[in-house]
Write a structure and sequence with these properties.
This protein is an alpha/beta fold and 414 residues long. It has 2 domains: 243 residues, Dihydropteroate synthase-like (TIM Barrel), CATH 3.20.20; 121 residues, Sulfite Reductase Hemoprotein, domain 1 (2-Layer Sandwich), CATH 3.30.413. The protein is built from 15 helices and 15 strands. The protein has an 8-stranded parallel sheet with strand order 8-7-6-5-4-3-10-9. A 5-stranded mixed sheet has the order 11-12-13-14-15, with helices on both faces. A two-stranded antiparallel ribbon has the order 1-2. Strand 3, helix 1 and strand 4 form a beta-alpha-beta unit. Helix 7 packs parallel to helix 8 and helix 10 packs across helix 12. It is elongated and about 80 Å long.
């Protein structure tokens, strides 16, 4: 419902492939992926996690296929999965062939680990015959030793060259249904490698910072790398690699795409002021309570929690709905217009109730249903608060005068 964000750079054109029913590249919406952490042979346990990932917003899910039992598990899960499944292959081409027999929608091959030309071509030929795409999944930590020697380490050029060599094997058997990743745990290295890959290939790119670690640091690293590239128009599908429940990876991916305007909002976007000398409530506590109450309802709206009524509704006028505190009251506003004034202790409950009505009835209907006198009461509270605290609640005017005086004194002394 909120106004669409200012667009980022135009997305760079790439070929389009299909991983099952999901289009990747060629202008398709940027998709979100994650990977199961269960044993793939545990069909019911893995399916439960796949459903949790799909419910959180995953478009694709990857499962490891490292043994025969895992391939058998995939065969049972493919027809029951709510999203296309991708098999992750590291060392053995026979596991890739078994995964194809299981009916997976895609493969991921690590060219640093699966190195024999004949085996690579065999997998590519089988995938071509079945119409199954492959991701060339380059990782800075597992490059072929000759590439480390040739480029003096894991450089952007080394990562892209690894992908190029694998792609050349595919091309020899006429296989072109490919996406590429050049991941690293170093954010600057990852960014530069993907920039080079984007300039080198027209295949869709799978973005990720590998081994990012647990939140919050892992989220910061993942967002720094993935977000930078998406803002530049680079990237067709993404995965956060967190040491956490993979559902957290999906949530982070969806939220990032929604924040950049690359996917339609499907959940809550809560904004809140950082608080100041004029705040009359515990902004952090109220914001947390509002988020907990609203998040489970999956309302696709932007909600604001503001600490005071002096500037709150105006500063958050672009939010679909919000609440601002003043004189032990909560001032409920829609698109910056006050619609209700409630007791402070009822702020969160009133916000949740109005948010649900807003989604069900629409903004115009809820504005038309505004309480009589709500705006006048809010304005009276605002004026009283200004008289009590002043327009400069943080005393910035005094600080500015001191700065000017200090600069003047230093200039005179020199």
């Amino acid at each position: 419902m909120a106004r669409p964000p200012v667009p980022t750079s135009a997305r760079r054109p790439t070929r389009q492939i299909h991983v099952g029913s999901v289009a990747v590249g060629g202008g398709a919406p940027v998709s979100v992926q994650s990977m199961t952490t269960t044993k793939t042979a545990d069909v019911e346990g893995t399916l439960a996690q796949i459903y949790a990932l799909a419910n959180a917003g995953a478009d694709l899910v990857r499962c490891t296929c490292n043994e025969e039992e895992a391939a058998v598990g995939l065969a049972h899960m493919v027809p029951r999965s709510p999203v296309p499944l991708i098999a992750d292959i590291h060392f053995h081409q026979r596991m890739a062939l078994a995964a194809l027999e299981a009916g997976v929608a895609g493969l991921r091959l690590n060219p640093g680990n699966l190195r024999k030309e004949a085996e690579i071509k065999q997998v590519a030929q089988e995938a071509k015959d079945r119409g199954v795409p492959i991701r060339i999944g380059v990782n800075a930590g597992s490059l072929h030793p000759k590439l480390y020697e040739r480029f003096g380490g894991a450089t952007p050029e080394a990562l892209v060259e690894s992908a190029r060599l694998e792609l050349a094997y595919f091309e020899e058997v006429g296989f072109e249904d490919v996406k590429i990743s050049v991941k690293a745990s170093s954010v600057p290295l990852m960014i530069e490698a993907y920039r080079l890959a984007s300039a080198t290939f027209d295949h869709p790119l799978h973005l990720g910072v590998t081994e990012a670690g647990p939140p919050p640091a892992g989220l910061v690293k993942g967002t720094a790398g993935i977000g930078t590239l998406l803002a530049e128009g680079i990237g067709d599908t993404i995965r956060y690699s967190l040491t956490a429940d993979p559902v957290e990876e999906v949530r982070a991916g969806r939220q990032l795409l929604e924040a950049l305007g690359l996917r339609e909002r499907r959940g809550l976007d809560l904004i809140a002021c950082p608080s100041c000398g004029r705040a009359e409530i515990d902004v952090i506590g109220v914001a947390r309570a509002a988020q907990e109450a609203l998040e489970s309802r999956q309302l696709p709206i932007q909600v604001a929690v503001m600490g005071c009524v002096v500037n709150g509704p105006g500063e958050a006028r672009e939010a679909d709905i919000g609440i601002a505190a003043g004189r032990r009251k909560g001032h409920l506003f829609i698109k910056g217009r006050i619609v209700r004034v409630v007791p402070e202790e009822a702020m969160v409950d009133a916000l949740v109730e109005e948010a649900e009505r807003l989604v069900a009835e629409g903004i115009e209907a809820r504005l038309a249903a505004a309480d009589d006198g709500a705006e006048a009461e809010a304005e009276a509270d605002r004026r009283l608060l200004l008289e009590d605290r002043g327009a400069d609640a943080n005393d910035s005017r005094t600080r500015v005068e001191l700065i000017h005086r200090r600069v003047g004194e230093d200039a005179g002394a020199s």
